[in-house]
Amino acid sequence: MTMAGNLRKVTGLGRGGGLRRVARLARRRPRVDLSHPARSPLGSSVVNCVTYRDGVRTPQGGDPVDAVERMRERGAGFVWLGLHEPTDQEFAGVADPFDLHPLAVEDAIEAHQRPKVERYGETLFAVFKTVCYVEHEELTATSEVVSTGEIMVFVGQDFVITVRHGRHGSLGPLREGLESDPAQLAKGPSAVLHAIADHVVDEFLSVIEAVQADIDHVETEVFGEHGARVDPGRVYQLKRELLELRRAVVPLGRPLEELATRPIRVVEPEIQAYFRDVADHLLRATEQIAAFDELLNSILQAHLARVTVAQNEDMRKITAWAAIVAVPTMVCGVYGMNFDHMPELGWRYGYGLVIGVIVVACLSLHRGFRRSGWL
What we know:
Beta Polymerase, domain 2, Methane Monooxygenase Hydroxylase, Chain G, domain 1, 2 domains, 7-stranded mixed beta sheet, 12 helices, 57% helix, disordered N terminus, cobalt ion binding
């Protein structure tokens, strides 16, 4: 079956039956992000399918499949097909005409992959982990701080296929930015791959900045007046969320280095310089995450130290008061014994003398403990 026939299965619009089928599928599945008014779903998982020639979006009058055929006949331009969480059946109509490798297709459908770059013949397959900062009014021991998703990218000589997983990481604004710069978009599919990588890394830096605000807030509370009462679970939660962020950021270093240094047929040599810039930004993000992890360790140790100091202060206070109370307890215990012959038992002023001795002894001990800082 030709590429046109397969794409018609996925993008069959313009016919009444196809439109009704798309509407039914759209009601079953959550709606995807369609930020551009000219964009409309081409299927249950297809977000957009656009052809570009000389960096300019081609007119949308006509069937998208016909536009793809005309583009390949002329031998210029490329197709950008965007998908959102496709199923096996939905992706089958796309994999065959673009000659996508079955292993890459399996990874794109199942998701939950590590960031990587793989080459399958004339096609490059890249996986990016996307991150999103989850807004919260107050950080607790169970707060979600970082949410992750994935973007898979297939890059060929005349096509780019993006597969997005997760409810964030929309590529609508990215597409609009590229369309406003035809000179960059005219460099081909590798320019789109660079824009996606740059967009993902910029989101890393934005999330890191937001996480830093949470860390600064916890640090201020730990070193505040009531720092010993801060819940350590909040620090542990930040460390767990930082680990999730690390899993998205750190593994991307080697794929970006490969894109920036190794010759790849579908990546223009001119674009490789742009990948080096993205790799520099990723290195900064990696260093910041490592610094945050060390800072959280220090905050946790400082919190435990403050708890220990507070407990020692409480124990000193308890010990001091126990010593003060021990004086009247001892005197009263001695004079409470039932013996007939005890000193001062028959003396008129004996009771007052004993009470006076107790008061003086207690006041002396209290003053001594105050001077030493125990009270």
